[in-house]
Amino acid sequence: MFGYHGRYLRVDLSTCESQLVPLGEDVLRRFLGGAGLGTYLLHREAPAGVNPLSPDASLIFVLSPLVGTPLTTSAKFAVVAKSPLTDRLCDALSSSYFAIAAKRAGFDALVIVGAAKSPSVLVIDDGRVTIQPADRIWGMSSNEAESQLRAELGPQFHTAVIGPAGERLVRYATISHDSRHAGRGGLGAVMGSKHLKAIAVAGSKRVDLADPAGVVAAAKDLSARSFGPATAKYRELGTVANLLTFNRFAALPTRNFQHNMFEAADELAGENLMAAREVARKSCAACTIGCEHIYQVNGSTGSGQVRIEYESLFALGSLCGIADPNVVLAAARQCDELGIDTISAGATVAFAMECVERGLLDAPELRFGRGTAFRETLDRIGRRDGLGDLLAEGTRRVAEHIGGGVAAFAPHVKGLEIPGYEPRAMQTMALGFAVGSRGADHNRSGAYEVDFSDRANRLHGTADSARLAVETEDRAALLDSLILCKFLRGVFPDLFAESAELLRRVTGWNVTSDELHETAKRIVTAKKLFNLREGWTRGEDTLPARFLSEPLSLGVAAGASLSRQRLDEMITGYYAARGWDSDGTVPESLIEDLSLKDISELTPASISPCP
Amino acid sequence: MKTTSSADRDSCVTIELYGVPRVRAGRRECSVSASTVADAVRSLERQCPELTGSVIIDGCLHAAYRLSLNGERFISDPTTPLAAGDSLVLVAADAGG
Predict the structure, then answer these.
(1) SS3 per-residue string spanning A145-213
(2) Which are the contacts of A270, defined by CB distance < 8 A and separation ≥ 6?
(3) pLDDT score for A556
(4) Least CB-CB distance to B95: which of A314, A449, A487?
(5) Taking all residues of chain B, what is their mean pLDDT, rounded to a whole number?
(6) Using the beta-carbon criterion (under 8 Å), do B66 and A452 form an inter-chain contact?
(7) If you placed Cys at A163, which of A142, A255, A459, A573 could pair as Cys (CB 3.0 to 4.6 Å)?
(8) In whole angstroms, what is the distance from residue A346 CA to residue A314 CA?
């Protein structure tokens, strides 16, 4: 077998036992790796109806055939589990040397089940598994814990850790590594529920490649293209460039989506942050793009440096009415240290601010634009202190707690807080949010590309744009399973054909573009099947009532609205484009056509270890 | 008999720069005389040579960038006519974050 080890490591923290479980070529070719293989494994490993924070829940780290190759941006991994925030499938991706070290440890995925009795570190040294006490690092920030572990174990080890928020089961806690995060959906809480502070991996096992010279040639070609105009945005300015652009297009979520423009957007603009505060630019492991822009934090909010992306900038900035870049940058650093998802944190606090201003929540200082109260609240969330204990549950549960109709303006889909795209001003993206398997999601749907083109009217979505939204989902499913960074997507004239060629060189499989199109559809539908198994209903594919009843008031989008009827028509068009039934369920014939018949028969009882 | 030159037909159009084009050009906007989008892009290149080779290649906008007419609709046809007072908003095509 080329490109893979052909097995996964399964560790039961309750019994301290581990085993290697075979992965056949049939499964690997159907699901590739990353999000795809993780979805397959979650079907197999997670008992139906499992509480995501119970010992029975599975936490799965998945590598890919490209990890360890010289292909740029390939040092990525997916973490897959049932989300404690959404109770649906969650796959969070990230990039770091952790991916390379894990693959060299000798497996294609790591499945963790059970729960340790006390704070622990899972150490995997070239395949040798030990579970060690973690009392000395329990309570540390993500960065502190990583530094401490590498100092103790040696620089050959790379770690994935949780911060204080994960320990306290904040439902949007992250898993951190090399200062990056598998951020969305609260997988850090799943890790915390297992009393697992960290995973440390090191290894020396390499997989063979079918055509090593061909892979090197492809890597050189891809690297050369990665320096071109298609990635200039990320390299030269970073995703923070979005903020001012979205404000111009009246699509910048502001004050809990009450407004679609922010009067202080210039103060937070990426263009201005770069000029005034950028101190460094960094790259992920094995990446030639270098999208990480590091900024200086100044003033009374503390000093230091922090990396910030658009999603954090909007969520901790305009969404909460915060205009002071020092506050936003300091808040981003605070979230990193606590180990919480900046989008969910910002959105939950913004929702709370609106509740306070409407007299529905008793926290007088927590109002839009008040930086001190904002940062204190973030800290309380990370430590589940006072009001923070409630807000640590995420917007959906907070809305249920407050009651009285506040769910209408709780900014989430399926429990996952909405990223920085105003749905009424980007209506193909609104569809992408509504139908997303992990909730409101800008990483699994790239429908914003459709809105930012002449292929659709972004202020008036139609069922016709559903097909275009599906295409962006399929591209994302492929990239998330290969795995390659989405920031590379602009360099591929034909992503599916080029991906097939890369896979041929790595695995030796005679893969075609058509096969990968089907693979992408299989992966998206497999995610849907998991959610169906966990109780998905048609009613969850929607947006909060605010987005379907209040027209926008500002800028070029003033007057734009999205009715429930129009959204439903788009959703129906989406189901049709996917080949699903009109009620959003998956017909047996499609399950058969996509070779997914076995997936519903998988159970933990069917697992047999390598001989 | 009075003839109308191309310059007479051109309209005064603003091109707003966002993201990389703004950083590279070192300015927020340009005023150009143009009757079509293609004219406007050529004029922009003359005023902002820093965009040549990255944002504008062979006189055309690179596929990594988009133009919106007045922020209301994205346009890709270079023959799209422009009227006096129009704004072209130049942004990265990739809105991903």
Answers:
(1) HHHHHHHHHCCCCEEEECCHHHHCCCCCECEEECCEEECCCCHHHHHHHCCEEEEEEECCCCCCCCCHH
(2) A237, A238, A239, A240, A241, A242, A243, A244, A310, A313, B19
(3) 98
(4) A449
(5) 91
(6) yes
(7) A142
(8) 8
Contacts of B34 (CB under 8 A, 6+ apart): B10, B11, B13, B40, B42, B43, B82
Instruction: Identify which of B62, B75, B97 has the shortest CB distance to residue A309.
Output: B97
Type of residue at A579: G
Helices then strands, counting H and E runs in chain B, come out as 3, 7
Determine the Cα angle at A227 with ends A223 and A233, to 5°: 130
Q: How far apart are the first and last CA of chain B?
A: 57
Determine contact, residues A177/A160, Cβ cutoff 8 Å.
yes
For A59-98, how does the pLDDT look when each residue is reduced to its tens digit (9 = 90+)? 999 999 999 999 999 999 999 999 999 999 999 999 999 9
- Of all residues in chain B, the one with the smallest CA distance to A486 is B96
The interface pTM score, or ipTM, of the predicted complex is 0.93
CA–CA separation, A416 and B35 (whole Å): 47
DSSP codes joined into one string, A65-134:
TTTTSS-TT--EEEEEEE-TTTSSEEEEEEESHHHHHHHHTT-SEEEEES--SS-EEEEEETTEEEEEE-
Partners of A451 on chain B (C-beta within 8 Å) are: 95
Residue linked to tokens 């309570």: A139
Strand partners, A162: none
The CA distance from B68 to B76, in Å, is 9
B93 near A CB under 8 A? yes
Which residues in chain A are closer than 8 Å to B23, comparing Cβ atoms?
A: 236-237, 271, 274
- pLDDT, position A300: 62
Q: Which residues pair with A95 in a beta bridge?
A: A76
- The C-alpha atoms of residue A338 and residue A300 are separated, in whole angstroms, by 20
Of the pLDDT bands very low, low, confident and very high (cuts 50, 70, 90), residue B1 is: very low
Q: Which residues contact A113 (CB under 8 A, 6 or more apart)?
A: A10, A11, A12, A13, A14, A45, A55, A56, A57, A58, A59, A604
Q: Containing H/E element for A482?
A: helix A465-482
Predicted local distance difference test score (pLDDT) of residue B8: 55
For B76, name the nearest residue in chain A, comparing CA atoms only: A454
**Minimum distance, in Å, between the CA of residue A246 and any CA atom of chain B:** 9
Determine contact, residues A82/A92, Cβ cutoff 8 Å: no
- Give the other-Cβ count within 10 Å of A157's Cβ: 22
In this prediction, residue A140 carries a pLDDT of: 97
Q: Which residues of chain A have pLDDT under 70?
A: 299-302, 605-606
| Cα gap A533→A531, rounded to integer Å | 5
B72 touches chain A (CB under 8 A): yes
Question: In this model, does residue B65 exceed pLDDT 70?
Answer: yes
| Alpha carbon of residue A598 to chain centroid | 27
- Give the pLDDT score at B2: 44
- Environment class of A151 (CB within 10 Å of its CB; exposed 0-12, middle 13-18, buried 19+): exposed
Report if pTM > 0.90.
yes
Measure CA of the first residue to CA of the last residue in chain A; give whole Å.
17
A493 Cβ partners below 8 Å, 6+ apart?
none
Which of A95, A98, A79, A75 is CA-nearest to residue A39?
A: A79
Cβ atoms A469, A445 nearer than 8 A? yes
**Chain A residues with beta carbon closer than 8 angstroms to that of B92:** 232-233, 241, 245
Q: Which residues of B touch A318 (CB under 8 A)?
A: none
